[in-house]
Amino acid sequence: MSCIFCQIVDGKAKADFVLNDGDVFAIRDVHPVAPTHILIIPKKHVRSLLELDGADDSQLISKMVATAVDVARRIDLDERGFRLVWNCRSDGGQTVDHVHLHLLGGRQMKWPPG
Ligand code: 5GP
Ligand code: ZN
Predict the structure, then answer these.
(1) Per the structure, how many domains does the chain have?
(2) Tell me: the pLDDT tens digits for 17-53?
(3) Does residue 10 belong to any structural domain of this protein?
(4) For residue 113, is it within any domain?
(5) Closest-lying ligand 1 atom to the alpha carbon of residue 96
(6) pLDDT exceeds 80 at position 12
(7) Residue 109: CB partners within 8 Å, gap ≥ 6?
(8) Is 97 in the pocket of ligand 1 (CB under 6 A)?
């Protein structure tokens, strides 16, 4: 059984898509922790940031960040701002082993994060 994000991109599980663009897609998080909580996900299955290859995957990583900023602009988060979060492995709080970038907005974020 493939991971939940691979099932979503293969159309085997449902999700609320915000964007589907070449090698990345964006969906609304099923358990949002902010008024806006969107996940930017590569279509390629890569377990975590640590399995991304800094050289080979550098374009993919920059595309994920650029996509998050682009989505933030489109949904009017640019004036008040937003937060991007990469959780990596267990101490980082990663629960789905398919790398993804969280776009959070619509409320004042706290620092330091929990
Ligand atoms: P992580 O904890 O790995 O950084 O983030 C995984 C995120 O995926 C969590 O915020 C969780 O709510 C979300 N998530 C888990 N399963 C699903 C799902 O089936 N659909 C959607 N849209 N989000 C999911
Ligand atoms: Zn996957």
Answers:
(1) 1
(2) 999 999 999 999 999 999 999 999 999 999 999 999 8
(3) yes
(4) no
(5) 3
(6) yes
(7) 34, 83
(8) no
Instruction: State how far the alpha carbon of 52 is from the alpha carbons of 40, 46, 49, 101, 104, in Å.
Output: 15, 7, 5, 13, 23
DSSP label at 47?
A: -
How remote is the CA of residue 28 from the centroid of ligand 1, in Å? 9
Residue 110 lies in a domain: no
Q: CATH number of the domain that 99 lies in?
A: 3.30.428.10
Q: Is 100 a catalytic residue?
A: yes
**From atom 4 of ligand 1, which residue's Cα is the shortest distance away?**
94
Give pLDDT, residue 53: 86
The boundaries of the domain holding residue 88 are 4-105
Pocket test for ligand 1, best of 96, 97, 99 (most atoms within 8 A of CB): 96
For a pocket test of ligand 1, which of 12, 14, 19, 29 has the largest count of ligand atoms closer than 8 A to its C-beta? 29
**Within a domain: 58:** yes
| Tens-digit pLDDT profile for residues 53-84 | 878 899 999 999 999 999 999 999 999 999 99
